[in-house]
Amino acid sequence: MSETGIDIRFAVPADRDVLVTFNRLLAEETEGKSLDLSLLQPGVAAVLSGTIDGSGQANPLDRQQPTPGRYLVACHRDRVVGSLMHTWEWSDWRNGVVWWLQSVYVEPDFRRRGIFRAMYEHLDALARADETVVGLRLYVERDNRIAQQTYATMGMSRTAYVVMEEMFAE
């Protein structure tokens, strides 16, 4: 256990329910969205199982498909109190991999206590130890000033990019 009383580890399948809960709460808190549990539960399971379809079996579309991402969890006395997921994308411009932080959530009673910092520093150390990783990125809600300030204190900076999307199911 660290000096803050927080342990950081990779999530395991037994963490699925708490990760589903955290994602549901995150969507409600940051975007006012109610997530469809019939999509969210297998979506979290897909990351935990290392397969896109969440079955624990090889991806039927592409047997070479890498795992879609990983979750880190922060534990206080064996209780998961925070989580983040990271995924990856290839950067041809940098000839390396960028790790994207997503689904960052810390229980309200544990906020402003260094939980995110511990998760970020853990992930940052893993990324720096991997010679293929060239950086970390995340997107944050435009009006979430507290999160933006937190990320800035970790050394992250705003970019000139605007995220655009077309979601087929919405």
Helix content: 25-40%
Q: What is the CATH superfamily classification? A: Gcn5-related N-acetyltransferase (GNAT)
How are strands sequenced across the largest beta sheet? 1-2-3-4-5
Give the averaged pLDDT, no decimals: 87
- Characterize the largest beta sheet: strand count, sense, and whether it forms a barrel: 5 strands, mixed
**CATH architecture verdict:** 3-Layer(aba) Sandwich
- Which structural class do you get from the secondary structure elements? alpha+beta
Termini gap: 42 Å
Q: Looking at the structure, what is the overall shape?
A: globular
**CATH class label:** Alpha Beta
CATH topology: Aminopeptidase
Strand content is 15-25%
Work out the number of β strands. Answer: 5
> What's the number of structural domains?
1
- Poorly predicted runs: 54-61
The number of helical runs is 4
What is the N-to-C order of secondary-structure elements (H for helix, E for strand)? Answer: EHHEEEHEH
* Global Rg: 16 Å
